[in-house]
């Protein structure tokens, strides 16, 4: 599956993407805010990430910025019985709205594939991610849970959010390329 937003091309990862992923995600400021990424993060970890099988109801994508290449990742995952969204952006592209743009596209896709509710969370010491979630319609559940961070090597406080898709406004514009 491929998606296009105003500025981004969301596409599956390929093995050729592993060096770019390894380079982008291996910054401590990025990897420490991801639950499943280990530290240190190198080419072997990136190869494992880009070759993960795709779940048709919970796909994940690399974010490709035309003229610049891969700048991050966004997608769905399973969190118990629920479907959650997650994303990361390479540091060079922080503060430019790419995470919000990608998250909005994920919500539209979630509606199309039949999800009615999504969950998400951010580590308490990463409030910028909470801002992204709020911008696209997630609301805090009032729960701060403990979630393991592979890179931190410990559990950390996670602020939980949810989004009832049926309560959200009409889908945003994006084009599906396949």
Automatic annotation (TrEMBL):
It comes from Aurantiacibacter arachoides. The keyword Transferase applies. It comes from the Bacteria. Keywords: Transferase. Transmembrane segments: none annotated. Residues 8-166 form the N-acetyltransferase domain. InterPro entries: Acyl_CoA_acyltransferase, GNAT_dom, N-acetyltransferase. PROSITE patterns: GNAT. GO terms for molecular function: acyltransferase activity, transferring groups other than amino-acyl groups. This is GNAT family N-acetyltransferase.
């Amino acid at each position: 599956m491929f998606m296009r937003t105003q500025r981004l091309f969301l596409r599956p990862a390929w093995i050729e993407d592993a060096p770019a992923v390894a380079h982008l995600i291996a910054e401590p400021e990025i990897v420490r805010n991801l639950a499943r990424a280990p530290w240190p993060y190198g080419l072997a970890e990136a190869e494992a990430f880009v070759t993960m099988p795709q779940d048709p109801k919970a796909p994940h994508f690399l974010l490709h910025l035309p003229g610049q290449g891969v700048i991050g990742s966004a997608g769905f995952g399973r969190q118990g019985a629920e479907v959650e969204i997650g994303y990361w952006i390479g540091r060079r592209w922080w503060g430019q709205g790419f995470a919000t743009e990608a998250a909005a596209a994920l919500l539209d896709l979630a509606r199309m594939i039949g999800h009615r509710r999504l969950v998400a969370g951010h580590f308490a010491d990463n409030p910028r991610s909470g801002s992204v979630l709020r911008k696209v319609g997630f609301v805090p559940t009032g729960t701060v849970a403990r979630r393991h961070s592979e890179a931190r090597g410990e559990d950390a406080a996670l602020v939980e959010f949810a989004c009832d898709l049926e309560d959200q406004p009409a889908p945003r514009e994006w084009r599906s390329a396949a």
